[in-house]
Amino acid sequence: MSVPTDRQYTAEHEWVIIADGVATVGVTEFAANALGDVVFVELPTAGEAITAGESCGEIESTKSVSDLYAPVSGEVEAINDDVVESPELVNEDPYGRGWLYTVRVEVEGDLLDPEAYSQLTKD
User: Fold this and answer.
1) Could you give the CA distance from residue 84 to residue 79 in angstroms, rounded to a whole number?
2) Model confidence over 36-78: pLDDT tens digits?
3) Which terminus of the chain faces fewer neighbouring Cβ atoms within 10 Å, N or C?
4) In this structure, how many other beta carbons lie within 10 angstroms of the beta carbon of residue 3?
5) Which residues form the domain of 42?
6) What DSSP character marks residue 118?
7) Is residue 3 part of a domain?
């Protein structure tokens, strides 16, 4: 399992890249593998305020439905319509085309560096 070093992570298996005050958010390869085939993604809407650590959407697979938790607080700027239309992108490219949404960051939540996330997901 890969853990890219260019981003931060949450204990709930989301990743976040913050650049110029905007966070791009997705789910990790670990989460995508644990979920199995993703068949539906419900994302927050553009303009919606989300709060770090709170549920802001859902991801549904052939195995289960899981909440998405916001890694930061702020206003959602955009969602990835491609993932809504083709949820399998989460499995195919979780760190690239499978990103979920962007947020104008007001407050960062409890974020882990790549090493700490790797430790969290060790077998």
Assistant:
1) 9
2) 999 999 999 999 999 999 999 999 999 999 999 999 999 999 9
3) C
4) 21
5) 10-107
6) H
7) no
